[in-house]
Amino acid sequence: MWNYEKRLQFPVNIKTPCPKTATLIITQFGGPDGELAASMRYLSQRYSMPYKEVGGLLTDIGTEELAHMEMICAIVHQLTRNLTEEQLKTDGFDTYYVDHTTACWPTAAAGIPFNACEFQSKGDCITDLTEDLAAEQKARTTYDNILRVVKDPDVLAPIRFLRAREVVHFQRFGEALRSVQEKLDFKNFYAFNPEIDKKFMA
User: Fold this and answer.
1) Cys-Cys link to 33, which of 26, 69, 138, 148 (CB 3.0-4.6 A)?
2) 108 by DSSP, 3-state: which?
């Protein structure tokens, strides 16, 4: 059960529309390392996680990623408000506009639609947590790339916040992986699936 609060996790107040920037930011909605994939990854993985505290962490972070997706969509929405016909053409937003007007739709910056194959839920806690660590680093790198090319301070502030949260999530998943490894009664924890091969578990 989720409780929804009618506020963003970090304020988004963009004064100057810029459809070109929107086409970059939207990758963190539906791109390969975006917030939609992150939330679905963690909320799917939690069911097969054999350790309650790690399952709880996946639920918490997966829920927060939904809030981050909401922030990204708010940024895209505000960047595409009240566009002129000229802005649509000159800023390269016309191809997106033809299909979606200014609605938020999950896609990468390169125009590739969201695909569930961009995330995994393997039912192996070592595999899943390793994927989660990589996912947070890839998202952080994408935010770094956005920060290099976007100049509007109204956009940069929430993007910096989101980047910082990726770092925190990476740290939490690192702690979770260490905790799982310490619970396993086997020196080479990469050689088996601890969720299935119970004989190796402490």
Assistant:
1) 138
2) coil
d(CA 2, CA 4): 6
Token pair belonging to 65:
């990623």
Closest CA to 168 of 78, 61, 66: 61
Q: Coil, strand or helix: which one is 187?
A: coil
Residue 150 forms part of a structural domain: yes
What does the alpha-carbon distance between residue 188 and residue 57 come to, in Å, rounded to a whole number? 24
CATH at residue 173: 1.20.1260.10
Write down the pLDDT at residue 86: 87
Mean pLDDT of 94-103: 94
Q: How far apart are CA 128 and CA 110, in angstroms?
A: 27
Residue from 83, 98, 65 nearest 21 by CA: 83
- Is 77 annotated in a binding site? The answer is no
Q: Is the per-residue pLDDT at 70 higher than 60?
A: yes
What is the average pLDDT across 86-111? 92
68 is in an annotated binding site: yes
Query: 100 labelled as ligand-binding?
Result: no
pTM: 0.92
In angstroms, the CA 165 to CA 116 distance is 23
Q: What is the mean pLDDT of the chain?
A: 92
pLDDT attached to residue 167: 99
Q: Is residue 11 part of a domain?
A: no
Give the residue among 44, 43, 27, 151 at the shortest CA–CA distance from 96.
27
Is residue 14 assigned to a domain? no
* Residue 8 per-residue DSSP state: -
pLDDT score of 91:
83
